[in-house]
Design goal:
- The chain is an all-alpha fold.
- Helices cover 75% and strands 0% of the residues.
- It is built from eleven helices and no strands.
- The chain is globular and about 55 Å long.
- The termini are far apart.
């Protein structure tokens, strides 16, 4: 059994929600497809983002939300203590320190990402209070910005050609589609925290429809990019990966329309895990073929 002091540190560590970083992993693999990868720098980028930057953002969000009900990656979140604040400071420091090892441009972009993530949650600013502003912030910085940021760290040069910028936009569309779905089960908790989420604005049915449209547009654009570049195999890999995700999504929506109590933490996390793992597998396959 843990001592009270050790338990507080363990609870703080859990609120960093490291497994939740898996849900943002597809953007990492996706960003590597178009570049000549420097293996050492790519590893540094992966560690920086998934072990320090994203967990630090999760922890900062938890520090101000102080959720009592399920949140992304934690069914029963522990209470927030001062130990969490110390872990946030440590993670922020390690984020910048690690990022500098992959280049100055990457470090600057990581710093800006960290500042924006704090503006998203900080009680005096709290961009997440506003459904549209919060969605745009997440869509741009966890999508387009993160895509370019990964390339800045893992390659010797930034790639500002048309197809690459379009793929960065696809990243944002993926995030726009998944963002309200991650909020769909926590309307009550968000309302208690003074947050008017995009999912609350859309309603449950509207959230399903909105996410579907965003993913359809992203898929059409991505398939167009692959086909026009002559990468038919990449398009087929992507379509194959999305079939189980679409089946799960449609079954979930069908169960909801039938009146079943399925708008739950478990169903939401299952969809996120399924789509993240399959997309990551698809993009890794593309990297291997390339």
């Amino acid at each position: 059994m843990l001592t009270p002091g050790t338990q507080k540190w363990w609870d703080a560590f859990r609120l960093m929600r490291l497994p939740f970083s898996i849900f943002l992993m597809p953007v990492y693999w996706f960003a590597l497809i178009n570049i000549e990868v420097d293996a050492t720098r790519a590893v540094i980028v992966f560690v920086t983002l998934h072990l320090f930057v994203f967990p630090a953002s999760n922890a900062y969000n938890s520090y101000f939300d102080r959720d009592e009900q399920s949140i992304g990656g934690l069914k029963k979140p522990p209470k927030v203590t001062k130990e969490l604040w110390y872990l946030i400071l440590i993670s922020d420091f390690l984020s910048i320190l690690s990022a500098t090892m992959a280049g100055f441009a990457f470090a600057i972009m990581v710093f800006i990402y960290l500042m924006v993530s704090k503006a998203y949650s900080y009680e005096k600013i709290r961009l997440k209070r506003f459904p549209v502003t919060g969605a745009i912030t997440v869509m741009f910085f966890q999508g387009w910005w993160t895509y370019i940021m990964i390339q800045a760290g893992a390659s010797a040069s930034l790639l500002f050609f048309r197809e690459n910028l379009l793929m960065a936009i696809v990243s944002s569309l993926f995030l726009l589609g998944s963002y309200p779905i991650t909020q769909i089960y926590q309307h009550e908790e968000d309302r208690k925290n003074g947050v008017h989420s995009l999912s609350m604005l859309l309603g449950i049915t509207g959230t399903f429809i909105f996410s579907s449209i965003a993913f359809i547009i992203a898929s059409i654009l991505l398939i167009y990019i692959f086909v026009s570049a002559g990468f038919i195999k990449f398009a087929m890999i992507y379509i194959s990966a999305m079939i189980p995700v679409n089946i799960y999504f449609l079954k979930w929506y069908s169960d909801y329309k039938k009146g079943y109590p399925v708008i739950t933490f478990e169903r939401t996390m299952r969809l996120n895990a399924l789509s993240s793992l399959l997309l990551s597998a698809a993009f890794i396959s593309m990297l291997l073929f390339k």
